Amino acid sequence: MRLFVAVKFSPEIEKSLTDLQDKMKENHITGNYTNCQNLHLTLAFIGEYNSPNKVMKALSKVEFEPFEISLGETIGNFGDILWVGLKRNFKVMSLAESVRTALENEHIPFDRKPFKPHITIIRKAGIFSEQEKYIKSLKIQNVKMTVEKFSLMHSHRENGKLIYTEIGNIKSK
């Protein structure tokens, strides 16, 4: 099973991100756009691991208070992946660290790249120089939400479509 730990978004954040994607589509920016229901903030990427119950047991040890996150003003890229950032937030950084520590304590492998909070909106983006200027000019709505839970997610393909299914979640105190 391909697993990851993530924060799922409120309908308001999903709408803001899909509105942004619509503007990009209108400006002929091509690529594999992330489906609305797949938009998320990855806290830890586990990858292929066939013991989701062991992962949930590890995650159940993570305690956190509800906290607020908000979309940042940045659209960035990792190669041909376009993403939207979050405003700097110590609590989301702390949650990601707690999740990763819980996985490590139970010897569950995960991607150890430094945590950089971002939301992937397009993979394999086709961008030309004039579109780069357009992307930099886009304004992102300052939408907020309260994080009250995070989820263990399963990533798989059905009929060629990428599907993310929640296996379980951990609620705040």
Set down the secondary structure blueprint.
Layout: E1 2-8, H1 11-26, E2 30-33, E3 40-48, H2 52-59, E4 67-78, E5 81-86, H3 90-105, E6 118-126, H4 129-137, E7 144-147, E8 149-158, E9 161-171
Antiparallel strand pairs: 1-3, 1-8, 2-6, 4-5, 4-7, 5-6, 8-9
Number of helices: 4
**Class, according to the CATH hierarchy?**
Alpha Beta
Q: What structural class should be given to the helix and strand makeup?
A: alpha+beta
The biggest sheet amounts to: 5 strands, antiparallel
User: What is the string of SSEs from the N terminus onward?
Assistant: EHEEHEEHEHEEE
Tertiary shape: globular
Average pLDDT, to the nearest integer?
A: 95
Strand order of the largest sheet: 2-6-5-4-7
Number of domains: 1
Protein described:
The longest helix is centred in the first third of the chain and has 16 residues, at 11-26. The protein has 4 helices and 9 strands; from the N terminus they run E-H-E-E-H-E-E-H-E-H-E-E-E. A 5-stranded antiparallel sheet has the order 2-6-5-4-7, with helices on one face. The chain is α+β, with helices and mostly antiparallel strands. The model has no long low-confidence stretch (mean pLDDT 95). The two termini are 29 Å apart. The chain has helices at 11-26, 52-59, 90-105, 129-137, and strands spanning 2-8, 30-33, 40-48, 67-78, 81-86, 118-126, 144-147, 149-158, 161-171. It has one domain (2-171): Alpha-Beta Complex (Cyclic Phosphodiesterase, Chain: A), CATH 3.90.1140.10. Helix content is 28%, strand content 42%.
